[in-house]
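Q: May I have one protein plus its fold?
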Amino acid sequence: MAVKSRATHRARRSLGLTALLVLAALLYTLVSEWFGLDRLISGYFYHSNGAAGGYWGGARSNWVALIYHSVAYLVVVLMLGALAALAWGWRVGSSKQVELGALLVIFSLVFGAGLIVNSLLKDHWGRPRPKQVLEFGGERPYQPPLYPSTVGGHAFPSGHVAAAFGLLALWRLLPLCSRWRWPVLSVVLVYGLAVGYARLSAGGHFVTDVLWAMVIMVMVVNGLYFGVFRLHQIPNNARTQRSPWRFRVALFFLVLVLLSVVFAEF
């Protein structure tokens, strides 16, 4: 009972912190719109040449290009690694944490970065990118982040930033007593923010696009970890129950189909 009580307390605390993060993001978004921070910050990366137009500093940087393209490779490595762990566990047997942990990584990227961020929001929200708005040499009016628009655009939220923060799923799998939890979390945050900076400097996204991509991935990872797979309640020595091979083959191919959704976005 004590173990279950600690697990319940941990889930409530994490979900409470997630709710605070959402409220903080909402507050920042309102303040940002009031003071025009999205356009102000993006303006620092835009260099105007007067009547000749202008350019985005990050669009000419090799480092920005490297960070941008690294996300696609990260997604491939995470997905294939999780898929390999899943297949190996089914082949030789594995702990329940390993099997569900692999599924956590896969479904965090598939439903978080793939379906919610890219397919549902980004492809249909209609917010123009900074390089598409009138203030920065584009042809479309600026649109606030939390209102769907018919102007057209794929700025909200950032798909690459969402995929970068998919690394949070790996961090969630580390034991609470692990000395690597804070270093890994620091690496995830630095990398996610670096991808966000790269997208800002190239005129691909506003700050609020980056912010909400991160918030959505935090909600997805925590929702899957605590609500769907309930990994916080699984003992370390728990083993997976054997299931019919047909079920595992069907699940395996289902995961492959879902992977194709994410790969198609990058």
